[in-house]
Amino acid sequence: MVGGRAALDDGADEAPTRMLPNADLLKLREATAPAVPGNDASEVSRAFAAIAMPDMRAGGDTRRELERRVREGAPLAGLQLTGAKLDGAKLPRAILAGIDLSEADLSMADLTGADLSGAKLDGTKLDGAKLDAASLAGATLEFASLRSASLMRANLSGASFPGADLRDADLRGAYPDSALMGADLTGARR
């Protein structure tokens, strides 16, 4: 955000291609609107859909870009971060509900108080991550690795952890405990 305006960033290290007031950003959420010749809003809408979310998948180092988007409060709904390299990311209180982070590396990430409800975290590496007071309600963590992760007071309602590795994790105050069925809890603090 720049002075109440959002810059559309195509990921290049040059000046943003367009500056839009916040009100225009609301219109841009309708990125699926059909193109109408001469209709500037539909042209901007298509441009937004094409460049607003650069490809953040395939293991690319996207940590800084995601941290920036979280800081700025950018909409992240539906974002695909499958296989993303986000180790050490600082994302406290981030709204990551419903995001696909399958096979991503979030080792040592700070997700304190983050909303990961409904997120897909299958095969995700969260070793040493800080998930204290985070919401994982309805999230799937099949075969995820959370070795030595801290999930103190985390909301695990409806989450599933089949085959997950929570060895040496700190689960004190996490609820409900029953969500952890099928996970390896060897050495976990409860």
Task: Walk me through the structure.
The chain has 190 residues and is mainly α. The chain folds into two domains: 47 residues, no CATH class; 136 residues, Pectate Lyase C-like (3 Solenoid), CATH 2.160.20. It is built from three helices and two strands, in the order ββααα. A two-stranded antiparallel sheet has the order 1-2. The longest helix has 12 residues. It is globular, with a radius of gyration of 18 Å.
Topology pattern, helix = H, strand = E: EEHHH
Q: Mind telling me the C-alpha Rg?
A: 18 Å
Reported CATH architecture of the largest domain: 3 Solenoid
Helix run count: 3
Count every beta strand, where a strand is a DSSP E run of 2 or more residues.
2
Q: Hey, roughly how much beta strand do the residues contain? A: under 5%
Could you tell me the mean pLDDT? 77
Note the topology.
Blueprint: E1 5-8, E2 18-21, H1 22-28, H2 40-51, H3 63-72
Antiparallel strand pairs: 1-2
In short:
By secondary structure, this protein is mainly alpha-helical. The protein has 3 helices and 2 strands. The protein is globular and about 35 Å long.
Core attributes:
disordered N terminus, 190 residues, mainly alpha, Pectate Lyase C-like, globular, 3 helices, two-stranded antiparallel sheet, single chain
